[in-house]
Amino acid sequence: MTLKAAVLLHTDRAFRLFDRGDGGAPLEMQAASQLLSLMDASAEQAFGPRWARAAALEFSRHGKWDGALGVLDPALEDHPDDPLLLLARGAVLESLCRLDHALRVDRREGAWAQARARKPAESGQKRARLERAESHYRQALALRKDLLHARVRLGRVLQLLDQTGESIRELEAVVASDPALLEARDAYLARLFLGYAHEHAGALDQAVSEYERALGAVPDGQAAAVALSHALHREGRWPASLESLQRGVVRAGQRLVLDPWWPYVAGQIEDPAELFEELRAEVTP
Amino acid sequence: VTAPLLMLAALASPQAPAQPTFGVSVENVYLDVFVVREGVSVPNLSAADFEVRDQGVRQDVRLAQHEDLPLTAVLVFDASSSLSGQRLKDLQAASRALLAGLRERDEAALVGFSHELSVMVPQGAHHSTVRQAIDAITPGGATAVWDGLYTGLKLPRSRGRALVVLFTDGEDNMSWLSPDQVQRVAEESNAIVHVVTIADVPGFMEAPARKPLRRVADATGGKVWVAGSSSDLQATFLRILSEMQSAYLLTYEPTGVKREGWHRIEVKVKGGRGKVRTRSGYFIPPGGPR
User: Fold this and answer.
1) ipTM for the complex?
2) What residues of B are in contact with residue A245 (Cβ under 8 Å)?
């Protein structure tokens, strides 16, 4: 109990220091990790993977991908068969492909010239990351085939790797799942990605239908409203396109449910605040 | 910059349609054409000085008066967390200058975007409402540049010349739509897209991720304006308006060309009297916009 509390205390301090841009944050995370290693095996087994997941998700939320991998990698060495750790690592790699460059070039003087020189290497690196993410999602599903969010992400990654047929099969498997097990978030994302696949194949009617179904799952979803608007625009149905767009933006600032696309891009497979709360509750007398 | 406004006989009607419509036989294309020689606008040209080809077919053009068509200025603002402090203050001041430069009959609208899109002020509101909304912007969140620009492009109704001014200081990290998708929508629209950005570091606009912004602006006859510092922004906005007002507004009823699909436009000034900048074409989807 005391060790768990100490781990959480140092973790909290680390993230507070990160928020302030204080260089002492890594030392706090190191202290948390060292304390974790002092736990006996069964306590660590019950606590370690969840702590690592929460910390990695919190790092991701701040765009600190190195920090996220720095927590996940040792955790996966100790717990290679933890499906949620595999899912979290895949999500970090996927986000890195989309966000890393954007974050980096905004902050480094003269980064453009370097970026040009790096381009072929980066393209290869991006593909390699996506392939590793794919592998993580497949492993996670082999361990827990009901992990539908891993299947959604597998479908998307396959799409980005131009394996469209296989991607559609995975995404259709998600939407065909038992409705009692299918979260609205996963239904929304799967429909959104299916719409993307159809739209890029030129099947606009099918794309429109999938985007509408995505909005059926999450009516406040902005990305699906924009996607639907765009597909309708391409069909030449401009008034309907404008109507869809207006539906998507009218809820700005008042959404009851966040668009699942936003945390998806940021690699948030779960809410780290909720995970930390859960862990804190276990050490609170 | 140019706007091919595919408009109808309803042009002069106070009950203008909310979206472009092609249900009648008369359709006019309107083009904003900038003619520059040695960096200075060339004045006093007449319709006879221009040669306009639509899909390679020469068209009979006339010169319309700017006063014939009101201007709709859609300001698309990056309200993400990277835009804060002095940058935001300068942008707010610059946009006030832009609004002050609009005529009473011109319309303005405001789209804000972070990861979330918001039509902060719809077209038709008084300019002062737009000004107040800009002053109230609170930055925060991620950046969906392309989705924001798409929203700005879809917003203007067709009864005027549409000017979409995108201000962004960062790269997209949250859009659903791709740059190519938005570029095509821009080409199909009647809007001229200008991009205003701040160059904090050398070679800012040369970053690969920013090239699509330049492509969209070029395709619509607009420009990317890189302010050397954020304090230049006010002058930049005023320059955009002044340039818009100095453009030649050419109009023609397309003849000898197929109605649907992409129409490539070429505009020349006879006698090499200046360099022309205008949009590269316009698009009518199959069946026409419905």
Assistant:
1) 0.88
2) 150-151, 154
